[in-house]
Design goal:
Layout: H1 3-20, H2 25-44, H3 46-50, H4 53-57, E1 62-71, E2 77-88, E3 94-100, H5 106-122, E4 129-134, H6 143-157, E5 166-169, H7 176-190, H8 210-227, E6 237-240, H9 245-256, E7 260-266, E8 269-272, H10 279-291, H11 297-303, E9 306-309, E10 320-322, H12 332-340, E11 345-347, H13 356-364, E12 368-370, H14 372-375, H15 378-392, H16 398-420, H17 429-448
Parallel strand pairs: 3-4, 3-5, 6-7, 6-10, 10-11, 11-12
Antiparallel strand pairs: 1-2, 2-4, 7-8, 8-9
Helix pairs in contact: 1-2, 2-5, 2-17, 5-17, 6-7, 8-9, 8-15, 8-16, 9-10, 12-13, 15-16, 16-17
The protein binds NADPH dihydro-nicotinamide-adenine-dinucleotide phosphate.
């Protein structure tokens, strides 16, 4: 079909999505990115068009919005808004994280829930897609305040989740501490000990390698991409953004594979350590971010390196970039700078960290570029493995889980190559992930009728 006809179909489809979901710009962005890859495929496979699969997949099965009142340490009542978007359950119960961040709104959670459907499908595990969270900001709150918020949040959420229905996990602002408080309250209310949340503590149902999984998985995926060019992490300069869960373990694995990670960031700025963030310095980052809950600026003060207030790291020369903070953190101009400076591999650890303009730059220059829905799927994969271990009531060793994670990332890479390889041999991983993730869900929806 001609290029301009396909473009018109995309525009018509997007016009309907925008009219139905006004103002939800992140959701529009995520849908457009997927639908752009899918429309040509669907034209060649009319069964999906006839069954209006795309129209159904862009409408969440259910959206729950609720009030979360809690008492702060001064005894004052605070009110936040809670959400759970149950997007698609065609191939398994809803699965996806809970984000706690002041920027959280329905648009962001719908974009994340939509992406999650494709990501979970790619993992090869039977998981549907969902996402939730709140505009609550855990930063600067005491442990008791975080606990009271989590208990109030779960008091409402409990009505909609369960180990065979919807299994939330962590995301930005939701780490082991928050999962613990949420799980404790679920257990009190339901009087049952089940695998209703993942990312649990090791001595109460958690899986080994779950904390590491997203960051490690991202590096495993990047390594698979590098191998297609006869390359590896050995001796490469690596930029990483963020300094939370994903960034920390991406740094650890990239360093183990011989890479030199020279940047980390948070929402206030980035640090540049030209000697590399070695094991000892990374231990300090773990302490700084997970225990002290401080700012990345303190790394620069401790090690005497440069700190760039209010900036992002993409102007530093590198071979590989692993964005691991948040959505839309690389714009078109920054993408141009990366490519100009010799960066030839971008592996997304965060969800949708590259703007559409940035993605265009990566694809135009034919560098190795993997979208988050493929390369950050390691987290939800090990969450899926945590669910399996909970159902069996039997834990696996770290080696077993890590091997399964590695195999899953390789399988996702193969799926992307299968659906994304173009005539000239270039692998468009974005297209590959979108089509590869779509087919399994769409076929399940066809099997299940008009639901
Ligand atoms: P964390 O909360 O542990 O860390 C988030 C990091 O990103 C922090 O350094 C934070 O800085 C920074 N950040 C957050 N918001 C912004 C912003 N608006 N601008 C600049 N920096 C920001 O979260 P995770 O590491 O778990 O998540 C990071 C990304 O990875 C997210 O996109 C998430 O959806 C994605 N992801 C996470 C998975 C997981 O298993 N944890 C699984 C798959 C994807 P600050 O402290 O200043 O806010």
């Amino acid at each position: 079909m001609k290029e301009n006809v396909l473009k018109q179909k995309l525009n018509d489809f997007m016009a309907k999505v925008i009219a139905k979901n006004p103002g939800e710009v992140e959701f529009h962005q995520a849908v457009k990115e997927v639908v752009e890859s899918l429309i040509p495929y669907i034209e060649e496979h009319p069964k999906y068009k006839e069954a209006k699969i795309l129209e159904r997949m862009t409408e969440p099965e259910r959206t729950i919005i609720f009030r979360v009142p809690w008492l702060d340490d001064k005894g004052e009542i605070q009110i936040n808004r809670g959400f759970r978007v149950q997007f698609n359950s065609a191939i398994g119960p809803y699965k996806g994280g809970l984000r706690l961040h002041p920027t959280v709104n329905l648009s962001i959670l719908k974009f994340l829930g939509f992406e999650q459907v494709f990501k979970n499908s790619l993992t090869t595990l039977p998981m549907g897609g969902g996402k939730g969270g709140s505009d609550f900001d855990p930063k600067g709150k005491s442990d008791n305040e975080v606990m009271r918020f989590c208990q109030s949040f779960m008091t409402e959420l409990v009505k909609y989740i369960g180990p065979d229905t919807d299994i939330p996990a962590g995301d930005i602002g939701t780490g082991g501490r928050e999962i613990g408080y949420l799980f404790g309250q679920y257990k009190r209310l339901k009087q049952e000990f089940t695998g209703v949340l993942t990312g649990k503590g090791l001595n109460w149902g958690g899986s080994l390698v779950r904390p590491e999984a997203t960051g490690y998985g991202n590096v495993y995926f990047a390594n698979e991409m590098l191998k297609t060019k006869g390359e590896s992490f050995e001796g490469k300069t690596v930029l990483i953004s963020g300094s939370g869960n994903v960034a920390q373990y991406a740094t650890k694995k990239a360093t183990q594979l011989g890479g030199k990670v020279v940047t980390l960031s948070d929402s206030s700025g980035f640090i540049y350590d030209p000697d590399g963030i070695d094991e000892e310095k990374l231990e300090y980052v773990f302490y700084l971010k997970n225990t002290k809950r401080g700012r990345i600026k303190e790394y620069a003060e401790k090690y005497g390196v440069e700190y760039y207030e209010g900036q992002r790291p993409w102007g530093i020369k590198c071979d590989i970039a692993l964005p691991c903070a948040t959505q839309n953190e690389i714009n078109g101009e920054e993408a141009e700078t990366l490519v100009k400076n010799g960066c030839f591999c971008v592996g997304e650890g965060a969800n949708m960290p590259s703007t559409p303009e940035a993605v265009e730059v990566f694809l135009k220059n034919k560098i190795l570029y993997s979208p988050g829905k493929a390369s950050n799927a390691g987290g939800v994969s090990v969450s899926g493995l945590e669910m399996t271990q909970n159902s069996m009531r039997l834990p696996w060793s770290a080696e077993e889980v890590d091997k399964k994670l590695h195999d899953i990332m390789k399988s996702i890479h193969s799926t992307c190559v299968k659906y994304g390889k173009e005539k000239d041999g270039f692998v468009n991983y974005l297209k590959g992930a979108n089509i590869g993730g779509f087919v399994k869900v769409a076929d399940a929806m066809l099997d299940q009728g008009a639901v």
